[in-house]
Amino acid sequence: MRPDLPTDPPSGGLRPAVLVTRPEPGLSETMAAVTALGWHAVALPALRAETILRAALPVRGVQAILVTSGQAVTALAGRVPADMPVLAVGAATARRARAAGFVHVTAAEGTAEALADLVRAEWRPSAGALLLATAPGYGMDLVTALRGGGFRVVRRCVYRIRPGMPAPEALRAMIGPGGVDAALFFSAETARQFLRHLPRDVREGLRSARAIAISDRAAGILGAAPWREIVRAATPDQAAMLDLLGVAGEAEGSAAR
Asked: I need a labelling partner for 148 at 20 to 30 A (CA). Which of 39, 41, 135, 167 fits?
């Protein structure tokens, strides 16, 4: 369940505020981790995922299923055989696949490029097709890379992405005139949607905040807003992003120096 969005401005709280812009699944986990570091975690999912797969997905002739997000795992659970090999982007997505009942799960480091490298290194084009479970508008770079390596890739849209940002009035109440201390962005698309739906006056409130991006692509998109600084995680995962965020008191002290 998505955490309730607060109605009071973060600047009025007792702890420094951090915006968490990712959707479920993952939002609640990150909110808990940010809170454990001493921050006031504010749920601001820029996207909303909806499952559009309503029946069993045929997998005859498929040697493995590729998933690049937890949203795909949610959509597939119970709709493909649990013993189908699943190749996932990132350890977190792999954990969700195992929790959903899939028994043969392999994780690539957290990028689609790493997943393509894993497939080319450990799988054979002659063994069968690969099924990419994704959303409309997503996954074409991965498909192109694998087809270039001789693989047959079947792309199936099992969920869709909708904008998830609240109305401008709610955003103003959440961010407030005092701004926030940091914001976490787990994908280029969350960064894009966040900025697209941000009123100009609210955008100005970001001047005192750090933007913490999971990738170069996300960081590049975030450059369109007046952040205090934009930093990119050393590796594309939550742990590296939280390392950059740091413990609330220690991070504030470092910023002051």
From this structure: 135
Cβ neighbour number for residue 179 with a 10 Å cutoff: 18
Task: For residues 76 and 130, give the distance between their C-alpha atoms in angstroms, rounded to a whole number.
Answer: 15
Query: Residue 48 pairs with which residues in a beta bridge?
Result: 162
Q: Please calculate the CA angle 241-242-243 and round it to the nearest 5 degrees.
A: 90
For residue 217, give the nearest of 112, 143, 147, 115 by alpha carbon: 112
Percentage of residues of the chain with pLDDT beyond 90: 72
What pTM, to 2 d.p., does this model score?
0.78
User: What value, to the nearest 5°, has the Cα angle with vertex 24 and ends 37 and 158?
Assistant: 150
Q: In the numeric block, which tokens belong to residue 48?
A: 């909303």
3-state secondary structure 12-35: HCCCCEEEECCCCCCHHHHHHHHH
Look at residue 207 in the predicted model and tell me its pLDDT: 87
Spatial distance between the Cα atoms of 84 and 103, rounded to a whole number of angstroms = 8
Q: What is the maximal distance between C-alpha atoms in the chain?
A: 60
Kindly list the strands in the beta sheet with 129-134, ordered across the sheet, starting from the edge strand earlier in the chain. 105-108, 86-89, 62-67, 129-134, 153-157
- Strand residue runs (E) in the chain: 17-20, 40-43, 47-51, 62-67, 86-89, 105-108, 129-134, 153-157, 159-163, 182-185, 210-213, 229-232
User: Is residue 256 scored above 90 in pLDDT?
Assistant: no
